[in-house]
Amino acid sequence: MPFYERGEARIYYEEVGSGFPLLIIPGGGLNSTIEGLRTSHPFNPLETYRDDFRCIAADLRNANGGQSSGPLEIAEPWDMHSDDQLGLMDHLGIDRFLVIGFCIAGPMIHNLLRRAPERVVAAAMMQPSGFRPEMPNLFYQNNITGWGPPLCEKRPDVTMEMVHDFLTSMYTNRADFVFTVDRDFVRNLQTPILIAPDNVPAHPYEVAMEVASLAPNSEVTMFPWKDTQEHIDETVAHARRFLKTHEPAKATA
Questions:
Q1: Share of the chain above pLDDT 70, in %
Q2: Residue 17 CB-half CA count within 13 A
Q3: pLDDT class for 250, splitting at 50, 70, 90?
Q4: What gap in Å lies between CA 212 and CA 175, rounded to an integer?
Q5: What are phi and psi of 248, to 5 degrees?
Q6: What is the DSSP string of the chain?
Q7: Rounded CA gap, 170 and 168, in Å?
Q8: C-beta separation of 131 from 201 below 8 A
Q9: Over the stretch 112-152, which tens digit does the pLDDT of each residue have?
Q10: Bridging pattern class, strands 120-128 and 193-196
Q11: Residue 196 β-bridge partners
């Protein structure tokens, strides 16, 4: 099974297909795993786009049910994950790439665009997560109960106090918009992005549409798009067209 190591982090990944690289970030919050793509997502890009791109996905560091592990970098939790993702691309010898992801991938993609704008060719954000002022502690509470305790059970080096500090740094101290960037960043974003909005507590429609309205090179899928298989299929096709449109003319891995 393929792993790559960066410092104390050990990241499990899978890749299928060939062509221009497509980084796939599973949803599921901090329990984001490749297996989740197969069991709990509207569609699985590893299968859907394997004939179109070189598809690459990884388990998030310290996701329960996943195989990736590493220390909690409390001071920069979002950058910790971006470093894992960019490090995986480096490990595979990939410079520029497309990216698609679900849920937590929304803030993560924004952070990749902030950290490495020259490397991300275009990005598709499916049901992206964002901050709801009326539910300011949503992500902290979801993870302090659903992610932290199982992690501490299997990792004696991680305590609930560390989990609290990590989640506070990741969410509470950044409780606005998409957590990782501000509105001015999105206004000035030149990278093409596709937004497939959702409307559940963790995936606020209003934030997704605000991103789409601010970003100068944005597209939006139909909404709702997860209510029928026909709508899912249409959105899968929309995302494929979007990614193919922005794929560089000479695809190189």
A1: 98
A2: 21
A3: low
A4: 20
A5: -55, 150
A6: --EEEETTEEEEEEEE--SSEEEEE--SGGG--HHHHHHSSS--HHHHTTTTSEEEEEPPTT-TTSS-B----TT-HHHHHHHHHHHHHHHTT--SEEEEEEETHHHHHHHHHHH-TTTEEEEEEEEE----TTSTTHHHHHHHHHTHHHHHHH-TT--HHHHHHHHHHHTGGG-STTSSS-HHHHHT--S-EEEE---BTTB-HHHHHHHHHH-TTEEE--SS-SSSHHHHHHHHHHHHHHHHHHS-SS---
A7: 5
A8: no
A9: 999 999 999 999 999 999 999 999 999 999 999 999 999 99
A10: parallel
A11: 126
Q: 141: which 2 tokens?
A: 């509470």
Q: Is the pTM of this model over 0.85?
A: yes
Confidence of residue 252 (pLDDT cuts 50, 70, 90): very low
What residues contact residue 159 under an 8 Å CB cut-off, 6+ apart? Answer: 152
Q: What is the mean pLDDT of the chain?
A: 96
- CB-based contacts of 208, cutoff 8 Å, min separation 6: 106, 125, 128, 130, 195, 197, 198
Q: pLDDT tier at 177 (50, 70, 90 boundaries)?
A: very high
79 in Cβ contact with 87 (< 8 Å): no
What is the C-alpha separation between 229 and 101, in angstroms, rounded? 19
Residue in the structure block whose two tokens are 């410092």:
7
Q: Which amino acid is at 109?
A: I
Reading the block at residue 245, the tokens are: 């449109």
The pLDDT of residue 249? 84
190, with CB counted inside 10 A (0-12, 13-18, 19+), is exposed
